[in-house]
Amino acid sequence: MAEVLVKKLHKAFPDGTVAVEELSLEINDGELFVMLGPSGCGKTTTLRCIAGLEEETSGEIRIGDEVVSGLRPSQRDIAMVFQFYALYPHLSVKENMAFPLRAANRPESEVEERVAEAARMLQLEPYLTRKPSKLSGGEQQRVALGRAMVRHPKAFLMDEPLTNLDAELRADMRAEVKHLQQRLGATMVYVTHDQTEAMALGDRIAIMNKGNLEQLGAPMEVYNRPATLFAARFIGSPPMNLIEAEVTNGHLTAAGDLRITAPEGLQRGQKVIAGVRPEGLTVSESGEGVKGRVVSKEALGDETIFVVECEAGLFHVRMPATARFEEEQVVAVRHVGAAPPAYDPTSEKVVSAP
Amino acid sequence: MATHIQPEGLADKGIAGETVDPPVRRERKFGSGVEILLLTIFMVVMLFPVIWMLETALKETKDIYAVPAKVFSFSPTLDHFQNVFSSDSPVFKGFVNSVIVAGFSTLIATVLGVPAAWAYSRFTLKAKKDQLFFILSTRFMPPVVVVIPVFLMFRDLSLLDTRLGLVLVYAAFNLPFTIWMMKGFIDEVPAEYEEAAMLDGFSRFEAFWRVTMPLLIPGIAATAVFALIFSWNEFVFSIFLITDPDTRTAPSAIAGLIGGTTIDWGLVAASAMTFAVPVLVFAFLVRKHLVAGVTLGAVRR
Ligand SMILES: Nc1ncnc2c1ncn2[C@@H]1O[C@H](COP(=O)(O)OP(=O)(O)OP(=O)(O)O)[C@@H](O)[C@H]1O
Ligand SMILES: [Mg+2]
After folding, report:
1. Domain boundaries of chain B, sorted by first residue
2. Model-level pTM?
3. Residues with CB under 6 A from ligand 1
4. Which ligand is in closest contact with the Cα of A49?
5. CATH of B88-294 among 1.10.287.3510, 3.40.50.80, 1.20.1250.20, 1.10.3720.10
6. In sequence order, what DSSP letters do the residues of A186-245 get, joined into one string?
7. How does pLDDT run across A108-154, given as a tens digit for each residue?
8. Complex ipTM value
9. Nearest CA to ligand 1 atom 29
């Protein structure tokens, strides 16, 4: 295992499309590093540059102590799991997993041993003689993982490996990937556009947008203090309430006199956008807070999400399942808990002190 | 990109371009006697020449010239077929030459065409569309148009009356077709297979050879059969470029039987029948892929 370093990566395709503007990442040895971003933001392109399937226009990529620019994919000692698995259809499960070892001309006994080990870890033993097309999606995914791990590569690259699975299986496989990564102590770069997956898996998350890095940090850091409005909109389900407010006497005051605890580092009179998580608001029948009207509610079992219309806009409010408000009911909304991050409306970057 | 998804059925057989069997046609009662009558007439008209030729090949020489013609009441003989294969027969050499020429030209076209098609399918090339169109456009040219220049060229290179010359011409004619048809098949195989193999430790070419190639075999077979049939049937170049009875191919050898004072029609018919058999057999063997190949090569998604 080794660390992966991406320095000032820039990638433009021959047709002029710029897929990666400028990207620098430092992925530590043994880390599960998640790249998160919307479709078309350059995640796959970055992975393919690391793998050597695509040549970077400029910048430097290091794997371990080695600068890999100009090295062929086969010389980089990296394993990649593709979104559509790319299992060789003409080979059995066993031969699929043995393929990288055969490429390296390993002795037959070692091949047998490593494949058996991988099959045991991934519970693929009953399927070894089958062809990939005779497997379910989850099983195919496990074979792809098996093929990646038999070789003990320097790093794993995973390109949205779970997108093709149904929700339940995806949660299972997510746990399995994490478990496997920890057991192997593997350096893993994991690409996804699903923020739940990113939060659940990542040691660190890099949020990307249009070929640029928006934010880099541990999942809770990213969740609590998104660095930009883009990240704020992307992380969390439902996402943050972005509320236009002005710094007044020790408070952020929004339309309708909604008062939000002010974070540090702002000046009086400054106009900001406060990013308040749904759990940072609370609804009550009457009393303190601003007036609002319940527009809709989503009962999720353990909690209920209320959408409340106030003068300052539509708010998502997360309440315990015991909270009972009906649609169209007039309620009071107020802010509770810690001070939220505040953003500058023009630069869209966080301006409050952490 | 939806093309990355491997369709269930396709991956099942592990074969590019394999199509699902067409739905079984339901039994249908023939509507009317008129329909049957029309179809019978149609069939007789269509098959008459073939049947007539087969009969001629099987009749004794005196029965061939019988007036009125003996359609049913003749005693069949295999003498003419025996003559076709006898060592002093003028057409037997032609068949041997045809096998050699068709075989080698197909081999050359396939060996050159498959990698070319792979390159066109996988790499970004300058003006790729124009190049492909140019390649295809060489097929628009009727052989008669180029036969004179080729003749002159071959005379200078002393390739006239040689099988090598014919092999080269047929290979050149089959190459564009091979490239186009194979490109269709290769486009069907996701590039990810090769990329995965490259990451697994193989070079680009090894990845092609080990992963894509096995999936292409049915496609290659279909393409090769097309090329084979073209070379086997080709007449214009054959008759213009070769006059030597030792090196000419079957079509011109059979044509050579006609002329002179007496024509052995039995031998002509038997030769023609023999000539038709290999094509029918091959076409039958790969019929499923032929249809798939033609549609794949022609229809861009
Ligand atoms: N071979 C190519 N030629 C030209 N442009 C390309 C090529 N591959 C990707 N692009 C463009 O580069 C941009 C980034 O693509 P990329 O595949 O990296 O996105 P992504 O983040 O992986 O998206 P997704 O979540 O949809 O997979 C896109 O705008 C895409 O259209
Ligand atoms: Mg992608």
Report:
1. 22-77, 88-294
2. 0.81
3. A 13, 15, 17, 19, 37, 39-45, 193
4. 1
5. 1.10.3720.10
6. --EEEEES-HHHHHHH-SEEEEEETTEEEEEE-HHHHHHS-SBHHHHHHSTTTT-EEEEE
7. 999 999 999 999 988 899 999 999 989 998 899 899 999 999 989 99
8. 0.85
9. A40
